Amino acid sequence: MTIKIFVSLVVTTLFCGAFSTAHAHPLQPVKAALSSSQPKQPKWELFTPPDGMFSVLMPGRPKRSSQVQKTYMGEIELQIFVAQPPEQEVAYVVTSNKFPFSYAKMATPQKILNNAQKMALKTTQSRLISQRNIRSSNGHPGKEIKYINSGGKITTHRMFVAQERLYQVMAMTTSRQDKTLSTTIQGYLNSFQLILRP
Questions:
Q1: CA distances (Å), 23 to each of 10, 18, 136, 186, in order?
Q2: What does the alpha-carbon distance between residue 104 and residue 164 come to, in Å, rounded to a whole number?
Q3: Cα end-to-end distance, the chain, whole Å
Q4: When you count CB atoms within 10 A of the terminal residue's CB, does the N or C end of the chain come out lower?
């Protein structure tokens, strides 16, 4: 399965119920980690989408797209940002979506996160490697999961729930490059910051 197909498979699952938030870490240590002595590293830049809801370091300007998903809770618009450095079998993906007000009030953040995890594993036909509960720097609930599909593609995936939205930050790569790029992937995930509005 190519990275491109895998990205679209993951993206179609990620709208499933959750709110989110991100890990805020100082950018200087992250930039240092990302610019370490790893081969063929692209130039990493701080990216903020037009709505200003989050910021993240990306290897160049990501491609933006949107999809409207029909779900049991109504239509949901999914915003997708993807960056794929040349000469590397890796994709860096951020998605966000807002939930209908009634659903957001009904479901707990943990239930939403668990549901998103279940759908990600099911849709990509992957096996869970690890999972842990996390929190953003501003205290919002989140989850980190790592999984592998039958073709050997590994995804490290963080999701957060905040202000009636689900934010998902992922790095998808091959088993070989997962080891080579482990420091870069962690730096990318740690750079994601949710920008909350009053």
A1: 21, 16, 4, 11
A2: 6
A3: 42
A4: C
Among the listed residues 56, 55, 26, 22, the one whose alpha carbon sits nearest the alpha carbon of residue 162? 22
- Where b means 16+ CB within 10 Å and e means fewer, 165-187 reads bbbbbbbbbbeebbeebeebbeb
Distance of CA 182 to the CA centre of its chain: 16
Report yes or no: 87 and 40 within 8 Å, Cβ to Cβ: yes
Query: Of how many residues is the chain composed?
Result: 198
3-34+50-60+86-194 in CATH: which number?
Answer: 3.40.1000
User: For residue 82, which of 95, 70, 73, 98 has the smallest C-alpha distance?
Assistant: 95
Q: Is 100 helix (H, G, I), strand (E, B) or coil?
A: coil
Contact call for residues 187 and 57 (beta carbons, < 8 A): yes
Q: pLDDT in tens for each of the 198 residues of the chain?
A: 444 444 444 444 433 332 222 333 334 444 444 544 445 667 899 999 998 999 999 999 999 999 887 766 677 888 999 999 988 899 999 999 988 766 666 788 898 899 889 989 998 999 999 999 999 878 889 999 999 998 999 999 999 998 888 999 999 999 989 989 999 999 999 999 998 776
pTM: 0.79
Structure tokens at 7: 């990205």
